[in-house]
Amino acid sequence: MKIVSYNVNGIKARLPRLIEYLAEEAPDVVCLQELKSSDETFPEKDVRDAGYGAVWHGQKGFNGVAILARGEDPVERRRGLDGEDDDVHSRYLEADVGGLTVASIYLPNGNPVPGPKFDYKLRWFERLAARARTLLAEERPVVLAGDYNVIANDDDVYSVRAMDSDALMQPESRQAYRRLLAQGWTDSLRTRFPGGGVWTFWDYQAGAWQRDAGFRIDHLLLSPQAADRFVDAGVDKQFRGREKASDHAPTWVRLR
């Protein structure tokens, strides 16, 4: 099974690229982030015509997550996280598909630092960690896939100096990510590339793509039961270079 995390940066704007990706790579499960689409305007027909069932948690103009499954309909388990009743951001969706539980995650960016957006990021991380602990206790194969907006290690970025004041690289962000891993999750891409130097995001500004000035913020974390089935992980980097592409590349893990 190929499970993909793909921040599309606007599903309506990137729909041709998404359909192209589904046709060329035929992944089994795709977790989408940053739909920037309401529930009512999600392109369900286009996705179904491409051979995929879907569940989605939209938000007009911002955020939004979805889970696609080839040849079947994902069974939704949860949308949103407990802990802040007034949080209306569409950032978490969880479903069962193909014998797995998968979650599509769009963690807050957190800039500027310091400030309320960074505080919200850290609180959201703790809420995610609480849900992750519950999933681990169920002892099932789980994949937590998404844009975590965290550069976890110095070798996950083209230039530490360029990003050292960004919310993505603050000690608190990294500590929250490491606390999550310490519950027992496996960072699949890090397992495949322990020396780092693998990017999943290249900004539209300053020729970042042309200079390969990227960083890794899209992660697929595996529960022990999923990690036992680990085969490979990677980034479909070539899709970032296509016309009107997202600033993220599809990032994936393959499980038996």
The helix-strand sequence is: EHEHEEEEEHEHHEHEHEEHEE
The poorly predicted ranges are none
Terminal Cα span: 6 Å
CATH architecture: 4-Layer Sandwich
What's the CATH H-level superfamily name? Endonuclease/exonuclease/phosphatase
* Estimated radius of gyration: 17 Å
Structural class: alpha+beta
Portion in helices: 25-40%
Specify the overall morphology: globular
GO molecular function, one term: double-stranded DNA 3'-5' DNA exonuclease activity
Keywords: Hydrolase, Magnesium, Metal-binding
Protein name: Exodeoxyribonuclease-3
InterPro entries: AP_endonuc_1, AP_endonuclease_F1_BS, Endo/exonu/phosph_ase_sf, Endo/exonuclease/phosphatase, ExoIII-like
Summarize the structure.
This protein is an alpha+beta fold and 256 residues long.
Describe this structure in words.
One of its GO terms (molecular function) is double-stranded DNA 3'-5' DNA exonuclease activity. Belongs to the DNA repair enzymes AP/ExoA family. It is an enzyme of class 3 (hydrolase). There is one protein chain. With 256 residues, this protein is an alpha+beta fold. The protein has one domain (2-255): Endonuclease/exonuclease/phosphatase (Deoxyribonuclease I, Chain A, 4-Layer Sandwich), CATH 3.60.10. It is 27% helix and 27% strand. It has eight helices and 14 strands. The chain has helices at residues 15-25, 44-49, 116-137, 160-163, 171-182, 188-192, 208-211, 224-227, and strands at residues 2-7, 29-33, 52-57, 65-70, 75-79, 92-97, 100-106, 142-147, 186-187, 201-202, 214-215, 218-222, 230-235, 251-255. The strands form three sheets. A six-stranded mixed sheet has the order 3-4-2-1-14-13. Strands 5-6-7-8-12-9 form a six-stranded mixed sheet. The protein is globular.
